[in-house]
Amino acid sequence: MDGRCKPAFPKEAQKASLSAGFFTSGTFTAKGKPAWFSCQRIYSNACAFLECFLHPYLFIGFKSRRQKMQKTILGAAIAAICGFGTSAAMAQQASTSKVELWGIADAAIRHTNNEGADKGSLTKMIGGGMSQSRWGINVEEDLGGGTKALVHLEHRFNLDTGEKDATAPFFQLSYIGLQGPYGRLTMGRQWNVLFDVVSSTYASFPYSPYMDAYKPELGMAAGARTSNSLKYLLATPDRRWVGALQYSFHEGNQNTSAVENTLAAAAPGLINSQLPPGAPSVTGATTLGQIASAIGPQNLAALMSGVKSTINNADPNSPLGQAVAPSLSPIATSSLKTFGGFLRYSQDGISVGGGYLRTHLPAGTKLDAWTLGGSYRKDKLYVNLGYGANKIKNRETFNQTANSTISDIAKFEARRLVDQTIINGFWQGQTNGGFLAGDSDKRTMYKLGFGYQITPQINAGIHYYHAKQKGSASGNYNGKADFVVALANYAFSKRTDAYFGVDHTKVRGGEDMYLDRTSKARSRTGITAGLRHRF
């Protein structure tokens, strides 16, 4: 039986989404006879699944990623597994379905300075310097009339330990869809439209859209992936124009009550812990007026400021952090309601495009993100530039009075904490060139990069990013950041390459403009060297 089980890797490194086909290929029309639903069809698909995934030890004669896997099957064993009707189903399956197994193995040594509270150096192995290690399965079935069904599954892991990221789902991409003459509709967890347009139109490097160990541009992409999403993608026949629309559902998006109740219960203890030396206990006080009567109005503002800072900046290992984490984590990683789209044009080495995405956060905050940019390719030269902006809107406010209860204030801070945790995940990740967001409400970024193929085996590139952050009421988080990365890549073959990169980040501005809260560093340099294989 030929189940079309072959190793494959998307045509451009890192573009695991099948939407890359609309950007790079003009052969998206499926050909073949209609595959009608039948019992024979069910048995055929079941046998293909068993053959490809449960019995790999029956295969011999694997070839390269661009060739079909040639296999010798132990017929009696497969017949016993698949049951009756196998031979007829095999013939039909061979002409209508295709299963591709592909992956990336990447490991690197990375050295950085200004790490930790002592601002020391850190050298470690990471499970992906240029690309995050992963394996994936692509499935296509010809439905006739130029239409096909498709499935995409992608699992990412840390090659250095063999473990998956504990904060990420098992499949970081997982979707199903239909593709035909009028476009493609997919459903599931997918790249969002911001990532689609940036990675396909003005990616940082020509041989890999970004460096996984250092990718400031992805900090502007609202998480890059979206769960529970619908995406419709359409291209002109010549693929010069490509556009897409995205919508995702807010499943579990509005339930912040668990975090609110946790902080409301912890609030009296937090207030007592922040009292100035010698102040009387305020145990039993339920309103701001009662607290002010106990400690004096002059101490109330400083007290509440300290309480809010403790809530928003709590160490995950502190008692408060441990108390909040069980109820905060599921919400912070839940599905978020989004809608947006992108449009792209490409001809004669010139590509331009832009995209917009609105994300609704659990407590009502909205994050608007948009991007615009382009690139130029000619012979061995690649130039790209782009702009991105994130704007936070509709943050909840609370008008405190003497009659405001401690419980109400704590619940308000809990709702803000939920939304801020999600924003921090977008803006503060160190691999995303992150720096502290605080109470700022807007971040913009410009990027400019050059790449050049020095020899058939050697590629080099340099990229510069400039970010600006503003809207901080206190002014502590207003400031600017500069990022630069230089990268060289040596290709041993079409599938195996080595790379070496140097990156530097520097922030300046308000007193809390730091790369992270632990080190309070304002600059950091990284050196990365690694090896990557694609199959």
UniProtKB/TrEMBL annotation:
The record ties this protein, via InterPro entries, to: Gram-neg_bact_OMP, Gram_neg_porin_domain, Porin_dom_sf
Per the database record, which ranges form the Porin domain? 77-509
Q: Where are the transmembrane segments?
A: 72-91
Localisation per UniProt entry: Cell outer membrane
Task: State the species of origin.
Answer: Comamonas kerstersii
Q: How does it sit in the membrane?
A: Multi-pass membrane protein
| Main localization (coarse) | membrane
| One example of a Gene Ontology biological process annotation | monoatomic ion transport
Give any GO molecular function from the UniProt entry: porin activity
Q: Which domain of life is it from?
A: Bacteria
Complex formation:
Homotrimer.
Q: Name one Pfam family in it.
A: Porin_4
The protein depicted here goes by the name Porin domain-containing protein
